[in-house]
Specification:
The protein is mostly beta strands. It has one domain: Rubrerythrin, domain 2 (Single Sheet). Helices cover about 0% and strands about 40% of the residues. The protein has strands spanning about 1-5, 10-15, 25, 30-35, 40-45. Strands 3-4-5 form a three-stranded antiparallel β-sheet, with no helix packed on it. It has a two-stranded antiparallel sheet with strand order 1-2. β4 (about 30-35) and β5 form a beta hairpin. It is globular and about 40 Å long. About 5% of the residues are buried. The mean pLDDT is about 90. The structure holds zinc ion. The site of zinc ion has 7 residues, from loops.
């Protein structure tokens, strides 16, 4: 299962049994939360909370 790191933009391989909400660390040092959206893997950085507060 491939995913792209939102920080360094490198595509890397996740375990096939990765689950929604799992926390993974990428080689670049960022901590990422796994989100499964429509069968696609989306990675959200945990460090620095990128909350969208809206306008
Ligand atoms: Zn990375």
């Amino acid at each position: 299962m491939k995913a792209t790191c939102p920080i360094c933009k490198i595509t890397f391989e996740l375990p096939d049994d990765v689950v929604d909400g799992e926390i993974v660390e990428h080689d670049c040092g960022v901590t990422l939360e796994v989100k499964l959206v429509n069968g696609e893997v989306v990675l959200k950085p945990l460090e620095g909370v990128y909350e969208d507060w809206g306008e």
